[in-house]
Amino acid sequence: MEEIKVDEKEALACCGSSQFAKQMALASPFPSVDHAISVAKDIWFDKVDVIGWLEAFAAHTRIGESPSSHTKSAQWSKGEQSTALATATDSGLQELSDWNARYRQKFGHVFLICASGRSAAEILGELKNRYSNRPIHELEIASQEQMKITELRLRKLFSARTKADSTGSQYSTAVASKAEMFGFKSPFILFFFLHFLKLEERVGIIGQHLTAPLEGFPAKAPQVQARTRPPITTHVLDVSRGSPAAGIEVRLEMWKSSQPRPSFGGTDIGGWVLEGCSTTDRDGRSGQLMSIVDALSPGVYRISFNTGKYNPGVFFPYVSIVFEIKDTQKFEHFHVPLLLSPFSFSTYRGS
């Protein structure tokens, strides 16, 4: 398949951040949709700042409301919310509207969720659950939901483009073959042949080519797309200040002892080997903690944050998170965000 180019306008329809759209257009063309999605994730999570995130959120209509414009983004949004709108009652839509307003007042942006295939009741339940989150935590969740929407729209964009290219190519080949049967080799005569060919004959020609078996072409084994960022990344948000935590020292280590894994209360001297270290930038993101490798070595990893140096008054002098990556997960990406406050911290697996 030929590489597919994504311009800035198309990228903006997939994600309403101008930063994201410009970066995607610069990275274009893409050999496949999976590669485009991989690049999109790298741009969205590692290169677009919080202002860019909020710009993308603002491009969405509120859940339960029909888009007012007729842009591609609006059309996609309408399709994504079709299940919710079809399953909503008048009272349910009113409740959804009320909770949307409460959410915006608390968090300052629209409630964002990948609504495709979800009922109005499901979305309302998720909205109520997430309303209790802290703003900085909710910002991270909303950014992940935006990426789900972006991925969905990129797949739609590539599917439509590939289908159009494929149909056009098969149609041209079919007509040329049919014309050659009748001895029409001149492009000028071929044009008139195409124009006057009966509709049922044109449909039949296309149908034959669409259903013809692809003989002599063995199935290709699935290929793993090359990474565009390290397989393990992190992002630190300071809940007490309501902003990213810049200047925190971060260390990534891997367990390489003769023991298969560290044990609770056990001695780990010499077991942890440093993979890389960095310091979070102004957006709270760490630099490169390890090499960009396609296949991540399975095993136990530890990522540590020097929280005591960042804030001497914090309850934790440092925070370490230990996690295990299975062999079946070696091609995945692991984003380990940390939500920090003076007397607590929390984390979760990001995308």
Automatic annotation (TrEMBL):
UniProt xrefs under SUPFAM superfamilies: Transthyretin (synonym: prealbumin), UraD-Like
Organism whose genome encodes this protein: Gossypium klotzschianum
Domain Transthyretin/hydroxyisourate hydrolase intervals: 232-350
Superkingdom classification of source: Eukaryota
Regions that span the bilayer: none
One GO cellular component, as annotated: peroxisome
Classification via CDD domains: TLP_HIUase
Name of the protein described by the UniProt record: Hydroxyisourate hydrolase
